[in-house]
Specification:
Structural class: mainly alpha
Strand content: under 5%
Distance between the termini: 16 Å
Number of helices: 5
Length: about 180
C-alpha cells in the first residue's frame, strides 16, 4: 500500500490543522477578554476578533465538510471493528455539529442582544430583534457548549493518541502532513 493511499489528501489535512489553529485562537480570544475591563477598547477588540475568528471557522468548516464528501477516507490499517467505525463516524459528526451549533448560538446571542458586529471589518446583518432575556439564556448555552468543547477536542486528541500508541494503527498518521507509517510499530 503506498503512503498516498493511506493518508488524507493535502487539502483535507491542511483544512484539519487550520481548523485546529482557528479553534485555539477562538478559545484564546474568548478567554483573554477577561484580562480587560468591561467596555474598554482592548476588550471590545478581543471580542471582535473572537467573532471574526468564529465566522472564519464556520466558513472553513463548510469547506471541510465539502472536502470530506469529495475525498474518500483512506483505510485504517489494521482495520477497526464495525462498531468502532460507527463510533468514529458518530464522534466526527458530533464535533461538526458542535462547531456549527456554537457559531449559530453565538450569532443568535448577538442578534437577540441587538449587538451589531463585523466579520473582519464587514458588517454582519442581524436576523432578529432585541430580546435580552432570550439572549442571556442562549449565552448560557453558548458558555456551556464552550466548556463541552474542551472535552470534545481533548477526547478527539486522546482517541487519536490511543489509536497510535494503543491500537498501533494508522489513524493519526492519516491526518499528519509528514512522516511514514510502519505496521507493527
Amino acid at each position: 500500500m503506498s503512503s498516498q493511499s493511506i493518508r488524507y489528501s493535502t487539502v483535507v489535512i491542511g483544512l484539519h490543522w487550520l481548523s485546529l489553529l482557528l479553534m485555539v485562537l477562538v478559545y484564546l480570544s474568548m478567554e483573554s477578554r477577561t484580562l480587560f475591563e468591561r467596555g474598554s477598547e482592548p476588550r471590545d477588540l478581543v471580542k471582535a476578533l473572537h467573532y471574526s475568528l468564529a465566522l472564519t471557522l464556520l466558513l472553513l468548516t463548510g469547506f471541510r465538510i465539502l472536502a470530506r464528501l469529495l475525498d474518500k477516507a483512506p483505510p485504517i490499517v489494521p482495520g477497526p471493528t464495525p462498531l468502532a467505525q460507527r463510533l468514529t463516524g458518530l464522534g466526527h459528526l458530533l464535533i461538526y455539529c458542535w462547531m456549527l451549533g456554537m457559531i449559530l448560538l453565538g450569532y443568535l446571542v448577538l442578534s437577540f442582544e441587538g449587538h451589531s458586529f463585523t466579520f473582519w471589518g464587514l458588517p454582519v446583518p442581524l436576523l432578529t430583534g432585541d430580546d435580552k432575556p432570550l439572549a442571556e439564556q442562549l449565552e448560557d448555552l453558548h458558555k456551556l457548549g464552550a466548556t463541552l468543547g474542551y472535552y470534545l477536542i481533548g477526547g478527539h486528541a486522546l482517541m487519536a493518541l490511543w489509536h497510535h500508541y494503543g491500537r498501533k494503527d494508522n489513524t493519526l498518521y492519516r491526518m499528519l502532513p509528514l512522516g511514514k507509517f510502519k505496521t507493527g510499530d
